[in-house]
């Protein structure tokens, strides 16, 4: 079975996480003091929709990727969206666009 929307629509990441959590809870009750280990290498690429994943971030400001959750860096909250007015020139429309509220970029 392959996880993912395009492979098996019935079995997805959320259902796997739910089942693993239930298995861990049962294991803790039936085997106190032992370690539960789970390794599924095909599952390593499963993230929540707003997870901070570098490969899903914009290279430049205001691209079309989804917004990611805020994070804490060096003890301070860092918003993952552009918090204030930030204008860039759009060559296609030959006008400036405001990126306020858009996802931040890597660079």
The total count of strands amounts to 4
Query: Helical content, roughly?
Result: 10-25%
Look at the structure and give the mean pLDDT. Answer: 78
Shape: elongated
Largest sheet: 2 strands, antiparallel
Content of β-strand: 5-15%
Order of helical and strand elements:
HEEEE
Structural class: alpha+beta
Using only CA atoms, what is the Rg? 20 Å
Strand order of the largest sheet: 1-2
Number of domains: 2
Distance between the termini: 38 Å
Number of helices: 1
Low-confidence stretches: none
Protein name: 44574_t:CDS:1
The gist of it:
By secondary structure, the protein is of the alpha+beta class. It folds into two domains: 1-46, no CATH class; 54-98, no CATH class. Helix content is 17%, strand content 13%.
How does this model look, in words?
The chain has 107 residues and is of the alpha+beta class. The protein folds into 2 domains: 46 residues, no CATH class; 45 residues, no CATH class. The chain has 1 helix and 4 strands. It has a two-stranded antiparallel sheet with strand order 1-2. Strands 3-4 form a two-stranded antiparallel ribbon. Strand 1 and strand 2 form a beta hairpin. It starts with 12 loop residues before the first helix and ends in a 9-residue tail after the last strand.
